[in-house]
Amino acid sequence: MQQYVRARSGTGLLSKRLGLLAGATSLAALAWASPALAQDQSSLQNSTTSQPNAAQPAVPATANTTSAQEAGQPQDTVTAPDTSQGNSVTGEDIIVTGLRGSLQRNLDLKRSSSGVVDVISAEDIGKFPDSNVAASLQRLPGVSIQRSGSRGEPTGITVRGFGNDFNTTLYDGRRISTATGNRQIDFSTVGVDFIGQLSVLKTPDVSLASSSIGATVNIGFPNPFDHPGFRLAASGSGSIQDRSGKVVPTAGLLISSTNADETLGVLADVIYTRRDTDTNRVYVSGTPGGFFAPCQLTGSTASTCNPRDPGTGVPASDARTITGFFPQQYGAEQQRVEDERVDARISLQYHPTDALMVTLDNNFSRQEITSNNYAFGVWFNQGDLRNVTLDENGVAVDFTQAGTPTDFTAALNKQLLQTNQTGLNVKYDVNDNLTLEADGAYAKSWLNPGRIIGSQNGDIGYGTRLGNNLRFTIDGDSSDAFPSISNFGPAGNSAAWADRSVIGSHVAVNQTQHNTDELIQFRGNATWKQDDLTLKAGGQYYQDTFNFRNESTFTNNFWQAYAGYGAPSGGSAGIAPLPDSLYRGSISLNKFIPGFDGSLPPSVFVFRPSDYQNFLSSQGNPQAQNVPGFNYANVNGFTGSFDEQVDPGSVLRVRERTWSLYLAANFRTELGGLPFTLNAGVRNEYTSLIATGQGRLPTALVTSTADRTLLSIPTYTEVQPVRNDSSYSYLLPSLDAKLELTDNLIVRFDASRTLTRPTLSLLNPVLNVGNGQRIGALNASGGNPNLKPHLADNFDIGAEWYYKRNSYLSVGLFLKNVSNFVVAGVTRQPINGLIDPTTGQLASFAVSQQVNGPDATVRGIEVAWQQVFGDTGFGFQANGTLVDTNRPYDPTNISQSGFAVTGLANSANFVGFYDKNGFQFRTALNWRDEYLLQFGQNQNTGSFGAEPTFVDQSFQIDLTSSYDINKNFSVFAEALNINNNQQSTHGRYGNQLLDVFDYGRRYSAGVRYRF
């Protein structure tokens, strides 16, 4: 391999500077990721060279420790010689590229770092190991993924038991704006084709960030001077999901070039990605807890049953005194999802001298997810249940409910998420020792900009006098069974389940979330390097402005304009039958979830919610004429169009400003004659917050004449602006120590304090009581602008044995003491003195609100093993993580203050591969045990606080392969989830199914070109 040398003054200092970096590599030296240089000669796969190479990449890729001269050097594509056994770096050294070359680079970066770091590098320009960032990250020890149930796509990560919001994700060392309402990105929005490197910092670098209790993930994108000269990479592929049956494209193009004297460079890339997925889902919207009366239980001999709260004059058989849990809503649906994404980047670099590097870049992404959903649903009220059988945990495993209505729903859901970030970075080498850097960036993200309707829903069905005496039965555990229902159909006639002649209109719900997130950030720092000492000092400033607004037909109550199911059901409102032209077929529910026990009704209808709403609108203006079927008793102001209206209680604006100062020192010396590296730093962060919202309270509750399960809020108090100011400051120290016991055995100790700020959407200063309440399920939500960050004191100790080339074994222990956990509690309370018209008593709302709560300790062990079998091409990676906490979930605790650490799960990964002679094959096996995802369910209206959501254990197998046809062209193929792993969740107990998603397998094939 030819070594690249710049013919400019000062180049003789390069080897000295690289030596300094090798002795003082810090965590920040990993914060900037760099892509691998494309190989011009495929014959280099197993070639040899007499050129000696450094034991780490020739140019450490980092945004805030490299000098301007080093940033202008090309990225080293060869792996280091085998020095792990004390071998000399003279003579011929084998160069390995492709997957094995990538693994060796990852290993070198991990070994040379002073903290706990894992790295995934591109195998070549435009060739990353996986088709999704999160999918790649899950191959690392201690890292698990969170999937979107409807798409099966990895959307977030959990590191050492801490979920996505506990992990900071950076682009080239910069924070990213995201309009989702969370602080962290959805990884499915990141195009992976042209990423150069992913770095996962499990211990913090104070010069980069300390705002992550889990880990800091840095995504490194390419720049033109990473690969001087002209470079081109292109890829194209098609993918198909086994149920959707449609091939959809993915394509990418990258062009990079520098001028003849290599002072100016430009790089541009664009990626188009499409994924179509048909997912079958069976769901229970919530499993709230409450109290049953003895007359409701199987075997009761009571002549009447009127469940009431205990009190004077209440018969013992009617007194609600028996603790139990029941399903709030049950149904099944098919979701047909189209995920379309465009990612683009342009980078300009100006490098007139070795002392100056200027980089201007822009990153753009646009993801549009469109989902057509077709479903049925039935609603249950605890007080209406009869013949109830409770298991030993109080779960209602069998019951009947008289008069149960049946709904068939169709929904068109759209989510458009668009982000644009522009950044400018300047590095200047004052002299051989001192480098100054300034970095600034502006980013903005939009969720559903313009007049997009986020969710357009149509709901039809039958009820009232056609309601059935439905029976509900739980048949097994949520991991292999869903509940069964029987006695369904109009008035219990199962043969007439889909009889169009009795099906009428119910509700029409439109709702859209409109968010923006605007982020301004600046960083300035100075780095001093001399001999075995590196000093860094600097500061950062962030201003994050988040705007949140929800519009819906709930706000103006238009959603129930034609509720009531119509005349066949005996309703005074609603239109039935509906025109036959509305229906576009049906979906069979037979063998709906393969491998799961349970029984469902025969089918669900396919129809467009827009057609349904247009039909209702065509009935005319109810304000100008009498329109049969219109719900005059409960809906005012409706003129025929299902227009959305802004919910004042959803309007939120948060401006967060953070000022940070940091100082770090890294030096290399000897301890007892052994090489010893110490990296110590401290970071101080001061944050000020302004949260503003709009508050109002309901003044009345009324029943719906069109639907016996509904309550409406006809009037509210006047809207009042609400503002809250708060601030906090924390000192965050960090210490990394590394001792090299032998040439191939390293031990580490790390201690630090980190924080994670609460999700921005939780900081609303108002209580929001939405319209569209359900009988027996009144709810409201309140934010808390005074929430403080989670704080964690972290300790790591580990050992790494690099026993041969491209092979190592490591063991690490970690301990995290976390305080200020944000607890999503639910309390029952009255609001504004409202009376529940169904009971005549003070209305009791389930109010969810977040507070800073208890402390917890998380501890665990990580084991990782990488083995390459000489020059055979075979090898494997294996890792496992065991985690534990002193605050596990206790299902028997029904208090409002129940708490447990979320996200903790044992996990294991295995990747076996073959990589030789241009052919590559890889099998990846990923396992994660059951874990507590969150407190809260889709319907969370019970008496025992926020009910939990657990994710059942999962095991997935993926296959990838590629073949280099020549030095420019390669073909590849991928098969994901070949064992058809399904995602299921449950509530407090294992038989309380919440969701099961069957998203099937996906196959892809394509071609890559590089020059």
Automatic annotation (TrEMBL):
Start and end residues of each TonB-dependent receptor plug domain: 110-214
Position of the signal peptide: 1-38
Ranges annotated as biased composition (Polar residues): 43-54, 62-89
Domain TonB-dependent receptor-like beta-barrel, residue spans: 458-978
Disordered as annotated region, ranges: 43-89
Membrane topology of the entry: Multi-pass membrane protein
Pfam families documented for this protein: Plug, TonB_dep_Rec_b-barrel
Annotated family: Belongs to the TonB-dependent receptor family.
Protein name in UniProt: TonB-dependent receptor
Species in which this protein is naturally found: Sphingomonas hominis
